[in-house]
Amino acid sequence: MKALIKLNLSVNQFSGDIPGTIWALQDLQELSLEHNNLQGLIPDSIKTMLALQHLDLSFNSLAGMIPNSLEVLLDLQYLNVSYNKLQGPIPQGGPFKNFTILSFLANEALCGAPWFQPCQTFHHRSKKKILLLVLLPIGSSFLALAISLLLMKRFTRKKTTTLAHDLFPETAHQRVSYHELQRITNGFSESNLLGSGTFGSVYKGVSANGIIWAIKVFDMQLDGTSKTFDLECEVFRRLRHRNLIKVISACSNPDFKALVLEFMPNGSLEKWLHLGHHVLSIIQRLDIMIDVARGLEYLHYGYSFPIIHCDLKPSNILLDEDMVGHLSDFGITKLLGDGESRVQTKTLATIGYIAPEHGLEGLVSTRCDVYSFGITMIEAFTGKRPKDEMFKEEISIRHWIQELLPGSVDQVIDVKLLHPEDEQVAKNIACVSSILQLALSCTLDVPENRINIKDALTTLEKIKTQFFQRN
Q1: Residues 6+ positions from 371 with CB-CB distance below 8 Å
Q2: Is 1 inside any structural domain?
Q3: Are 312 and 376 in contact (CB under 8 A)?
Q4: Structural contact between residues 313 and 348, judged by C-beta atoms closer than 8 angstroms
Q5: How far, in Å, CA of 38 to CA of 59, rounded?
Q6: Is the pTM of this model over 0.85?
Q7: Are 84 and 63 in contact (CB under 8 A)?
């Protein structure tokens, strides 16, 4: 038992103090105790677990202070103590230099870090008061000099802190305030607006060191906004993948919440498919679909439990400077617990992309994402939206494709992909036919009959290989 490396006891009904026997597991690298009802203090003995890399104590009722002894856990890469009743100063040394507000959410009595209220400093104030009383008899000139020195010391200390924040590595989460976000977006002006969605608006801003950010500002007038913000923070805190949008930082106040995200200069897939004079080649569209499939594969299989995006569509697929696809907008994402294959929800996704069982029964599973992925593939290669006027209640975009495949692919393929002078037209049609056949496998009415995203990704990669072999 002492050789145990990973221990996951999350999402249970455990209560009381954290058992002391856990801290005897000296080789433990990952400890997950989130979503229980644990109480008491975070024990100081945790400092003996020097191999620990991942510690999640969130969504419990732990109280007291975060032990400074945690600073000795130099291998600790992930910490989450959000949604507890912790208080006092947040440690600043060791691995805490790399943790952000996302590790400490909803602990209102915490203090000291840039994102929380300043800690009380009665001890320092008393010392300054004594110093003034000692200096007073010496004369007003010496007193003025002493006060000046104190002010200079305080100013220097503040300036140093600011510089330390500016030097925070770009690869790590940065610390930003509301006032900084307001400044770099010109007061959240319309000229900086990139777009609006269900839960808020996204603005463009340029940081002090010239890096462009996308600032997602949540609409605090909507019911459930705080829950949506917390959920996105939870998802972003857990996940790291090339095909998922990257979070830079977060800003959370009672009346303002925002995420600072990596800026995607080429906008959304929806823009490239439907707006302006953008034209994506077959291989570009195929590569983007492969990117999306890889992101979904990571969500469904790459973590300790499945994560369901729940709202996959072209507007939530963002493209970087190299046209690599990134999944974004995790506002209604669902996290499945151990042993769960589906979960009930009252939140509906976008009409046209939503799986039948999600829309009718409120049941979501990884196969719901596969359904949305299939509809998105159809849209990417036909240029038709699932809610276009040609699709009435009696005929959906899927039924339209099913009726015309495999013999009439030329009637459904996006006309931008058909060029009479292109010698590869027949091969292009064959490629799109294979992709649309896969899309039909993704969008079957019965969830259990749909292909899973792993197999869908493998099929897309084979289609790409065959495309280059033909050409």
Answers
A1: 353, 354, 355, 356, 442, 443, 447, 450
A2: no
A3: yes
A4: no
A5: 9
A6: no
A7: yes
Q: Which residue has the tokens 């080429």?
A: 266
- 155 and 195 in a single domain? The answer is no
Q: Which residues are catalytic?
A: 311
In this structure, are 381 and 465 located in the same domain? yes
Same domain, 291 and 353: yes
Distance CA(213)–CA(230), nearest Å, equals: 20
As a whole number of angstroms, the distance between CA 425 and CA 407 comes to: 15
The first and second tokens of residue 454, run together, are: 């792993």
One-letter identity of residue 265: P
pLDDT tens digits, one per residue of 59-92: 899 999 999 999 999 889 889 898 889 999 999 8
306 and 434 part of one domain: yes
What tens digit of pLDDT does each residue of 113-139 get?
666 677 876 444 444 444 444 444 445
| 128 lies in some domain | no
Sort strands 256-262 and 212-218 into parallel, antiparallel or unpaired: antiparallel
- The closest alpha carbon to 263, from 335, 212, 188, 210, belongs to 212
Residues 6+ positions from 252 with CB-CB distance below 8 Å: 101, 105, 115, 229, 258
Q: Nearest-5° angle of CA 175, CA 292, CA 383?
A: 120
The residue behind tokens 């009696």 is 394
CB burial string 186-218: b at 16+ within 10 A, e below: eebeeebebeeeebbbbbbbebeeeeebbbbbb
Contact 146, 131 (CB under 8 A): yes
Interatomic CA distance for residues 401 and 434, integer angstroms: 12
Q: What CA dihedral angle connects 19, 21, 23 and 25, to 10 degrees?
A: -140
Rounded CA-CA distance 231/343 in Å is: 16
Q: How much is the pLDDT for 320? A: 95
